[in-house]
Write a structure and sequence with these properties.
mainly beta; about 30% strand; four-stranded antiparallel sheet
């Protein structure tokens, strides 16, 4: 049971107790309101106008040009003096007389001849050597030992080294130098030479 109160036009009516038919119907829920319109996007402002370029400044004043100073004083030029007097060349009045007799040189050598030793064929090419010899006839002495050859290949790399062998002989060592360069002393016809003189 519940009391029912009616309110209409400012008048209140209170009814008596009326039997209830059970709980009342739930009120209907309000509908959700419509979504608002999206806000309008403001348009971007236009770019500002570029400022005008400033006027060029005035040209600076031209500096005052100065005159070039005077040239220095020229000094006097001295002339070359005269040549000295030439003196006469004095000639010898007399030619000295040669000495009556020239004394002989002690131990002077005579009857000198060039002697060449036997030719040998070079065989070394890798740093070895071939030796040629020369000897003077009996009773003569050897003056200086030199190297000589009769045939030489275009690719040869052969160096001689001379040495004495007693008073009357000499030797020439033919080296293939540098080692392994070209054909060394191979196929060359080599010899030793000296001057033989009688004491």
């Amino acid at each position: 049971m519940k009391n029912t109160v009616f309110v209409a036009l400012g008048l209140t009516f209170v009814g008596g107790c009326m039997p209830s038919d059970g709980p009342g119907e739930p009120g209907s829920s309000d509908r959700a309101g419509a979504a608002g319109s999206p806000a309008a996007v403001s348009a971007s402002s236009p770019a500002g106008v570029a400022g005008a370029a400033g006027a060029a400044g005035t040209t600076g004043a031209v500096a005052i040009a100065r005159d070039i100073g005077p040239h220095g004083e020229t000094t006097a030029m001295f002339l070359i003096g005269p040549h000295g007097e030439r003196t006469p060349i004095k000639m010898e009045d007399t030619v000295p007389e040669p000495s009556a007799e020239v004394s002989p040189i002690p131990h002077a050598l005579s009857a000198c001849t060039v002697v060449t030793g036997a030719f040998i064929t070079g065989t070394n090419a890798m740093g070895g050597l071939n030796t040629a010899s020369v000897n003077c006839p009996a009773g003569q002495v050897a003056l200086g030992i030199t190297a000589t050859w009769a045939f030489w290949t275009l690719t040869a790399s052969c160096t001689p080294l001379t040495r004495r062998s007693g008073l009357s002989g000499g030797l020439v060592d033919w080296f293939s130098t540098p080692s392994g360069s070209g054909t060394g002393c191979q196929s060359n016809q080599l010899a030793a030479q000296t001057v033989c003189c009688t004491p």
